Task: structure prediction
Amino acid sequence: MLTMINLPSEKLRVSDLPTTRPTRFKLIPDDAELRAIADELGLLDLRKLRFEGEIRAEGRRDWRLKADLGATVVQACVVSLEPVNTRIDEKVNRLFVAELPEDNTDEEEVEMPEDDSIEALGKVIDPAAVMVEALSLALPLYPRAKDAELDQTRFTEPGKAAMTDEETKPFAGLAALRDKLDKKD
Result:
């Protein structure tokens, strides 16, 4: 679970935001803040991070945040644990709505809204919190070094041939049967 890092950013009070023009922001965390974010997200390193955009009124009571997220992250390879550098460039779009649709938690099944960029509007909009959340969502789930490959491990009873990774694939049995039939001919 992601706990929020206290970055020294200006949380924007919704009541102070101008409704006729956008409020622009640019966040570029310093080295200590980059280290804190990297630690929170389980990264080996966070070399660069930039979040730049604007917040503007949308309708009478809602607010839209549009921004560009740029980052250079270093994660451990899922195979070899070697450092993997990844460049992230994402468009971030959030709609903060004053009235979210009713949540019927009494029902067994809850349908997810189609638009996952909608969030409840509070008293403040925190671009730094949106930045960290967007970065965490943009991270590769399984970073892999360029030449990293899993070794094949073979387990079997003594005296029997070990099953290979290829044989566990869905059509491996059919291929083996085909090979047997070809040998008989």
Notes: Residues 152-185 form one domain. The chain has two domains: 12-102+112-138, 152-185. Residues 51 and 69 are 5 Å apart (CA to CA).
